[in-house]
User: What shape does this take?
Amino acid sequence: MLRNGLEPWHLMILAIVVIVLFGSKKLPDTARALGKSMRILKSEAKAMKETDVQAPRTDPPA
Assistant: This one.
């Protein structure tokens, strides 16, 4: 089916489609918002891991 997956020319076509759809003026704002969302997601995931480590689960008495 798909042996090579994503090749460089696929990325070029995808980039062209994104530029045509969103326009070159909105791309920096979109990239900035995506980066901010990724930072928030990473910090929340890290906080969840730290909370899990600090408060180990205990089984309630039967």
Remarks:
- The chain has two helices and no strands.
- The helical segments are 8-22, 27-54.
- Residues 24-52 form one domain.
